[in-house]
Amino acid sequence: xxxxxxxxxxxxxxxxxxxxxxxxxxxxxxxxxxxxxxxxxxxxxxxxxxxxxxxxxxxxxxxxxxxxxxxxxxxxxxxxxxxxxxxxxxxxxxxxxxxxxxxxxxxxxxxxxxxxxxxxxxxxxxxxxxxxxxxxxxxxxxxxxxxxxxxxxxx
Length: 155
Known about the structure:
The chain is of the alpha+beta class and about 160 residues long. The protein has helices at about 1-20, 50-65, 90-95; strands spanning about 25-30, 35-45, 75-80, 100-105, 115-125, 130-135, 135-140, 145-150.
């Protein structure tokens, strides 16, 4: 039933969220600590603030209630950013990360001298990603990568 709730909630709320200027990236309906949680993960260039989450929550809350998406089950409504270290997996993730610093972790059998590197994502396609690394454009096959995620520099 959770997939059905996710699907219905997303169909109802995606247009509302997009009209507010955000991208709905993922919808999740799961039990956490014994409680049902419906969570919308949203994105906008420049990042998501608590005010953004509140704006979206207020905009979708009554629509979800009116349509009884959980069929009477109590749930908590959450609106969240994607998180700083969410892996980059889908084409949409790569699109959102264009021009951003990313960290690339290689599968052991494909690892160059270093197991992981970082640079600016400058392009991607179905098979490859190209990053600017130390002033040079370097292309890597996606099949050689264990993980790609935003590069976090706390300096």
